[in-house]
Amino acid sequence: MTQAALQVKGVSYFYGDRPILKQLDFGVEDGEFFIIIGPNGSGKTTLLKTLCGIETARSGNIDLFDRPLVGYSKTAIAKKLSFVPQIVPVDFPFTVLQTVLMGRYPHLGVLGVEKDHDLEIAMQALTFSGVEQLADRRLNELSGGERQRVFIARALCQEPKLLLLDEPTASLDLSHQLRIMDLMEQLKQQQGMTIVMVSHDINLAAMYADRILLIKEGALVSLGTPWEVLTYDTLESAYDCTLLVDKSPLGPFPRITLVPRKCLGPNTRGGVAP
Amino acid sequence: MSGRGAFAKNFWLVMIVLSILLVGAMLLGLCMGSSERTVWAALKAVFNPGEGDATLRTIVLQIRLPRVLLAVAVGAALSVGGLVFQALLKNPLAEPYILGISGGSAIGAIVGILMGFSRFPGVCTTAFSGSIATLGLILFMNAGRSILKKESLLLSGVMINAFCSAVIMFLVSLTQDSRLHNIIFWLMGDLSQGNIQQALILMGLLLPCLFIVFFLSNTMNVLLLGEEIAHTAGINIKQVSLTLLIVTSFMVSTTVSYCGLLGFVGLVMPHSLRLILGPDHRILVPACILGGSAFMVLCDVLARTLPEQGEMPAGVITAMIGAPLFIYLLRRSN
Asked: Would you call A18 helix, strand, or coil by DSSP?
């Protein structure tokens, strides 16, 4: 049995009186690529923020590497996990290197002056994310995909064991989407990083995830391997639309095709077994 | 690569250049005035009491030196105040004067003056209460809504300022005696009333605040990347923001109680320095302290020397430079 990076037990979250997360139970194993999917407003982002302590659950417990999350100091959490938000404000144009170096924050002293060692780690993170040639550029000069990779580099520079990302591929073009996902795959393979990602793109999730968590209206719908979660019945009821699920021509994962109304016919709905 | 070595090199280069600028401005401040003498005469009068001009020595030490020191303290405090507000509200247009914090302090200060309190600690305390009340009002008005929205924040500032002006005018109109002229002159931002003791008290009050802000400068950098990143980098956002807002309000209210309303200093200096030096607060905080001081001393020199007769309040100069810059920034940001 591998160690659990995260163990979520009966977690509920309310916004005022409105329940956002309802009694969620699941675990994320160490070294796993774990993707959370679900329709809009299902509470994916809130769940992600609850997992890294930005939001506090009203009830239930979260264990981070087998210790209660609430027992950690803020700095101790920052040394275990780091977060890549969906949108980062760039009104104040730091350079790429400055931004990535800020990942060292929890490791620095009071005045926050970086040592050579910190710079080395930042350069490694830049190189790994493939943005080392942008080091001296300013954030507001970058494209969306470049910016996303810079914030991934910043998160890596924090030297976490667990990386949480909120829809990192949203609003990126196809090649940048693939690049980010390949980067995550590489992180998992080479460094044994645990990755928890919220995603809208079910096909990307199907190709990369070890396990997928599907939530709807804050409740767990399905949890398991892509083949277990991405079945025709589950997806149709969760997303309320017609889909076609078959085997991807690329390998042993499901492929999901949206079915527009004009193509509806007797043979266009359904799914296949693995 | 601009790494640690380069950071330290940049840091010290900026500090040295700005220090030279500040020393130059202070010397100019000591030498310029209604009795026109050369720099050398003034220096000789101060450092060579035997040979120099005794009258000039008195003018330089008793009148100009307190003014220059007051300007240094006020310039540093207001520039850093502007810098902190801009970072916390993630809005390059935020500034204590524009948001109405200065106006609130002024109401408090006038109440203190009218009640006959001494400058310190009496007037300082009432001014601080006024600034905290305004700060609370701004945060309350923007609670729930996103305080990052430029327009709503600036609009609430405009309204608070208008309200503060009304209250100030009300208080002034109640005042009958000779204090009226003093209050009005002081309101416009006046450095001429200070003596050396006051200047030193003000510096003593501001110094710890500046240190606190400097210690939090890297934290401010991370805060600018948004709440999610700041939080997961281990920052207690509420605690840090509250500390910074209260410390800054204290600095602003203290300078208001000594020198009245000096507008736009907190906009001009942080903005110009950010354009030149980039947004790293570990450099910007000390740069604002040195640059803001030098700017304020120079503004005061202009206020003293521009009019043919007498002088005008330094706040007139800072507003004449600052207001157009504000309009330019607002246009560009849209």
From this structure: strand
**Chain B nearest C-alpha distance from A74 (Å):** 4
Contact A106 B234 (CB under 8 A): yes
Q: At what angle do helices B281-305 and B314-333 cross, to 10 degrees?
A: 130
Asked if A216 contacts A234 with a C-beta cutoff of 8 angstroms, the reply is no
Tell me whether B144 touches chain A (CB under 8 Å): no
Residue-wise pLDDT tens digits, B293-311: 999 999 888 888 877 777 7
Which residues lie below 8 Å from residue B321, measured CB to CB, with a gap of 6+? B264, B268, B299
3-state secondary structure B39-82: HHHHHHHHHCCCCCCHHHHHHHHHHHHHHHHHHHHHHHHHHHHH
Encoded tokens for A64: 């981070």
pTM: predicted TM-score of the whole model, two decimal places: 0.87
What is the C-alpha to C-alpha distance for residues A67 and A157, in angstroms, rounded to an integer?
A: 23
CA distances from B192 to A210, B162, B304, B313 (A): 72, 27, 9, 8
Give the pLDDT confidence score for residue B110 in this predicted structure.
84
Q: Do residues A155 and A163 make contact, with C-beta atoms less than 8 angstroms apart?
A: yes
The answer to whether B90 contacts A49, with C-beta atoms less than 8 Å apart, is no
Q: Which residue(s) pair with A164 in the sheet? A: A83, A196
For the beta sheet containing A219-224, the strands, ordered from the edge strand earlier in sequence to the opposite edge, are A81-84, A162-166, A194-198, A33-37, A211-216, A219-224
Which residues from chain B sit within 8 angstroms of residue A88, using beta carbons?
A: 225-226, 229
Residue-wise pLDDT tens digits, A37-70? 999 989 999 999 999 989 988 899 999 999 999 9
CB atoms within 10 A of CB A62: 19
Residue A222: strand, helix, or coil = strand
How far apart CA B244 and CA B88 sit, in angstroms, is 8
A101 Cβ neighbours under 8 A, 6+ residues apart: A114, A118, A119, A122, A157
Give me the residue from A88, A136, A166 closest to B225, CB to CB: A88
- Which residues fall within 8 angstroms of residue A228, CB to CB, at 6 or more apart? A222
Identify the helix (H) or strand (E) that includes residue B295.
helix B281-305
The residue length of chain A stands at 274
Any A CB within 8 A of B87 CB: yes
Above 50 in pLDDT, residue B3?
A: no
**Pairing verdict, β A33-37 and A4-15:** unpaired
**Residue in A77, A91, A108 nearest the CB of B92:** A91
DSSP state of A7: E
The tokens describing B260, both together, are: 């009245």
B229/A83 CB distance under 8 A: yes
Residues A138-167 have a mean pLDDT of 93
For A220, the token pair is: 């767990």
Nearest Cα residue to A122 out of A108, A111, A132: A132
Best residue in A55, A77, A87, A92 for a mutation probing chain B (most B CBs within 10 Å):
A92
Tokens of A255: 């492929």
Q: CA-to-CA distance for B267 and A202, rounded, in angstroms?
A: 48
Chain-chain contact of B4 with A119 (C-beta, under 8 angstroms): yes
The chain-wide mean pLDDT, for chain A, equals 90
